[in-house]
Amino acid sequence: xxxxxxxxxxxxxxxxxxxxxxxxxxxxxxxxxxxxxxxxxxxxxxxxxxxxxxxxxxxxxxxxxxx
Length: 67
Hints:
Number of strands: 5
Distance between the termini: 36 Å
Shape: globular
Helix content: under 10%
Mean pLDDT: 88
Radius of gyration: 11 Å
Strand content: 25-35%
Strand order of the largest sheet: 1-5-4
């Protein structure tokens, strides 16, 4: 299995600084993957899905301001 890395912009994160997996941002079809999990990307700049291993990370120079 190849681990995918998805680079995110700050605007891709939800109001808490997270993203869910599976997601269309990773070109995943919701109907044929694992249960939806929320990942906190803003805290460390990246997070790894415990189901599929996809790594979501902020692009270099991007940051999350929060709302």
